[in-house]
């Protein structure tokens, strides 16, 4: 194809910021674009590429939607028939929010978010951890992503600053670090030990980085893991926190899947662990992230999230406030959704039972699906999948036949991408190749969400199973099983 | 004060990204913080520091809120009494959106925004300009700000890349350019010629920049002007567009105040001007921005906005899509608000008359307030204010007495900040010093919005007038009037 505009000022070759060019974002990469084409051609696509529960039919929880609906349209509250359409606790909560939102939901709020909502978040954290939380250290954001990016922006000073990211990791991190001109320092998670984090491994990566003249600035930990689904033990968390303090790196704790825990090991927040470490914990500079997009709410389209800063220098917090203020204010519906997630109906409230039932039904179904999916993958020849203890994904390893690897090479693509494209073309299932998340050299994985509707799951598994068997028939069995 | 954490990894002195430290954001700076303190102490504050209409009592337009309320709570649509609380066209529109939003408003949409809404935006642009618009070139965003920042991120490659910004300008631009490590190249607007843009001035700034070894990458034009309120003539726009093409810079057209035009000169979009320039226009790389936060909607808290790319290289558009995709999706309520602004009720629809009346009432009131406020400033000794032809602000010049300038020096602050702080302390009026927007050396200005409620305006003007007269009595008359 001839270049339609070779002299463009914004030309992708050499005339666009190199960091923009260098950043990759697999979740919406090649596979996603191919899937969109397939969909546009009228064929079925089963989107398991992204944790977007409501796009796969998960129903929103009723109560928070009712409250936001009323806040959006305050004149409803004065209508004599409002009680026919809305329960009384939703009406009361909407009034409470309107009393505490200067200008209502159509006005910019403080750049850190509305104070009433931040207090609801602080109260939630205090209940969860058994330790007080300070709303001045809580900033609301349009989902967790911009909060994470703003923290990375403060941390990355130049191309000599490195950020420790798990391998595999959620590609927001690698894309953002690249975009900000920093260095991605991948530390491997140990697949055969249930994707656990090894301090030895961290030390090796840091030693190597120092040799390259880099300064390590932060350690990102995703717990429960994305895409890997593991839940950290308290012992491991203490070790990690101590390591961060000793090595003088900020600990960035991505805890957006804290509600999505299906196994016997409970979620514990880094805030709690650090607080309970006493004086030693005071040296841990910690920023934790949460969202309304995951959990059982799955309210991705709202873009609600928060960060909580622990042991962060007040001058640094001022700088963070400034960076937030350049973006003016996060969207107020997203802020309210976060408040509603943190402060749900209580026993005795009109909506309490329905709320609990709805949340529990989604949670139990996710738990069943997590098990169904890892069992199904483990039943396939050449595929192994760690137990999905948490989050919304499975990240199975697939041994690919040599002939398939060669076929991929011929097509100038990674073997995992080739596998996922074949899967998409054969079944409509849109999974993301492991290369988008990072994987140990010579191993191949893919990520699927556990989000297809439960009643659809057997069919998805059947489609997958047939595809995989066909694939092995076409290309032969992998040499190492 | 002793440093509470001198060894912090995130320490504001030397251990935070210098570009973060260097960026300033006046609208929420010293004055805003002082105003918050005043408010916390129980005293009245009249916030004229920021274009946040609903925080000052502007009522939201009813129809779009009704639609969003229904989309938020889709079960309302099935309730037998829904017709008592919502008009039929709001119900129909909500159904239309739900049919076209995969997963509803709780799901991530395409990273560029939902296609149905983007088509509504494209149709609006086509009606406005008389030329077709392509939804593939329209990206929805959380307000205009992140769209602007993402474009600047593509443009600024290193510290040798400069962006032409008007002086005075809206500080989002200077803050973002500084944050991205680029060079701010201010070009002066000519106050005495109604804040018009002079090509000679652009040429001077560019010549100087080239001498400094800089590459000029983009020209930001805010039309109608913020904080200056001028509306560009078509002749001037053609000249600017031609200049951008010849000088190989991308034209970034901030047109968020396009509805807020109060004088006889109409708003014309750069898209229309460039399209009608024929082959010459094809060399103009243009990105235009719009929002739901201004106009008569004033829906700041929704964070809805769009960019339209004209003559941008397809490879650059792909890169922009990637940058948007790292942020996943803008908030869906904000997307819908943008769709509703672009596609309002039509004659014959149940809500048409009320919608038109509400919009017109806000518009006429803003127009009256724009005139009241510039007249009031012009009546004060030592103050001159250009006619407010558009936008939501007045940016009067104030001649300050020498004794006041000295007093400010003693307090180690700019004379305009000193004036605004005295104003705040004496009256509760929160205006922003001109230094936050940029002003010609040796001149002093401040920005106020025209947004205090119309019935409150005479009191605000009285407060201001008394303050200013007292100020001159305390410090003497300025030497030059």
UniProtKB/TrEMBL annotation, chains A, B:
<dbReference type="InterPro" id="IPR015421">
    <property type="entry name" value="PyrdxlP-dep_Trfase_major"/>
</dbReference>
<dbReference type="InterPro" id="IPR015424">
    <property type="entry name" value="PyrdxlP-dep_Trfase"/>
</dbReference>
<dbReference type="GO" id="GO:0030170">
    <property type="term" value="F:pyridoxal phosphate binding"/>
</dbReference>
<dbReference type="GO" id="GO:0008483">
    <property type="term" value="F:transaminase activity"/>
</dbReference>
<comment type="similarity">
    <text>Belongs to the class-I pyridoxal-phosphate-dependent aminotransferase family. Alanine aminotransferase subfamily.</text>
</comment>
<dbReference type="InterPro" id="IPR015422">
    <property type="entry name" value="PyrdxlP-dep_Trfase_small"/>
</dbReference>
<comment type="subunit">
    <text>Homodimer.</text>
</comment>
<dbReference type="InterPro" id="IPR004839">
    <property type="entry name" value="Aminotransferase_I/II_large"/>
</dbReference>
<keyword id="KW-0663">Pyridoxal phosphate</keyword>
<feature type="domain" description="Aminotransferase class I/classII large">
    <location>
        <begin position="88"/>
        <end position="461"/>
    </location>
</feature>
<dbReference type="GO" id="GO:0042853">
    <property type="term" value="P:L-alanine catabolic process"/>
</dbReference>
<protein>
    <submittedName>
        <fullName>Alanine aminotransferase</fullName>
    </submittedName>
</protein>
<keyword id="KW-0032">Aminotransferase</keyword>
<dbReference type="InterPro" id="IPR045088">
    <property type="entry name" value="ALAT1/2-like"/>
</dbReference>
<keyword id="KW-0808">Transferase</keyword>
<dbReference type="Pfam" id="PF00155">
    <property type="entry name" value="Aminotran_1_2"/>
</dbReference>
């Amino acid at each position: 194809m001839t270049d339609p505009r070779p002299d463009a000022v914004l030309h992708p070759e050499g005339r666009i910021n190199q960091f923009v060019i260098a950043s990759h974002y697999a979740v919406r990469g090649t596979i996603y674009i191919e899937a969109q084409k397939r969909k546009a051609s009228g064929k079925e696509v089963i989107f398991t590429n992204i944790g977007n529960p409501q796009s796969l039919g998960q129903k929103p929880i009723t109560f928070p939607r009712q409250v936001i609906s009323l806040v959006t349209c305050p004149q409803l509250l004065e209508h004599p028939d409002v009680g026919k359409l809305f329960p009384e606790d939703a009406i009361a909560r909407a009034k409470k929010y309107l009393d505490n939102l200067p200008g209502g939901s159509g006005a910019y709020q403080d750049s850190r978010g509305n104070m009433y909502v931040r207090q609801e978040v602080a109260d939630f954290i205090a209940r969860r951890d058994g330790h007080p939380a300070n709303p001045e250290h809580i900033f609301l954001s349009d989902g967790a992503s911009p909060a994470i990016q703003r923290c990375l922006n403060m941390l990355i000073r130049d191309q000599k600053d490195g950020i420790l990211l798990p391998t595999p990791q959620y590609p927001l991190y690698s894309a953002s670090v690249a975009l900000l001109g920093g260095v991605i320092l991948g530390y491997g998670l140990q697949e055969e030990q249930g994707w656990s984090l090894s301090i030895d491994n961290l030390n090796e990566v840091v030693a190597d980085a120092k040799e390259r003249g880099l300064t390590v600035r932060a350690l990102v930990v995703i717990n429960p893991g994305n895409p890997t689904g593991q839940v950290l033990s308290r012992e491991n968390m203490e070790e990690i926190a101590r390591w961060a303090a000793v090595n003088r790196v900020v600990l960035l704790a991505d805890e957006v899947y804290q509600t999505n825990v299906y196994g016997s090991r409970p979620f514990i927040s880094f805030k709690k662990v650090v607080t309970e470490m006493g004086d030693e914990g005071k040296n841990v500079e910690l920023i934790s992230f949460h969202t309304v997009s995951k959990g059982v709410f799955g309210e991705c389209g709202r873009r609600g999230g928060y960060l909580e800063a622990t042991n962060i220098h007040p001058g640094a917090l001022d700088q963070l406030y400034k960076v937030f203020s350049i973006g003016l204010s996060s969207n107020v519906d997203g802020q309210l959704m976060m408040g509603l997630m943190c402060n749900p109906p209580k026993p005795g409230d009109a909506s309490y039972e329905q709320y609990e039932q709805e949340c529990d039904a989604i949670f139990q179904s996710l738990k069943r699906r997590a098990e169904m999916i890892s069992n199904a993958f483990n039943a396939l020849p050449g595929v192994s999948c760690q137990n999905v203890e948490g989050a919304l994904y499975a990240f199975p390893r697939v041994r690919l036949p040599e002939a398939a690897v060669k076929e991929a090479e011929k097509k100038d693509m990674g073997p995992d991408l080739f596998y996922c494209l074949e899967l998409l073309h054969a079944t409509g299932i849109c999974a993301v190749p492991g290369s988008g998340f990072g994987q140990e050299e010579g191993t191949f994985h893919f990520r699927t969400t556990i989000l297809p509707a439960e009643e659809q799951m057997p069919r998805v598994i059947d489609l997958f199973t047939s595809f995989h068997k066909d694939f092995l028939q076409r290309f032969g069995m992998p040499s190492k099983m």
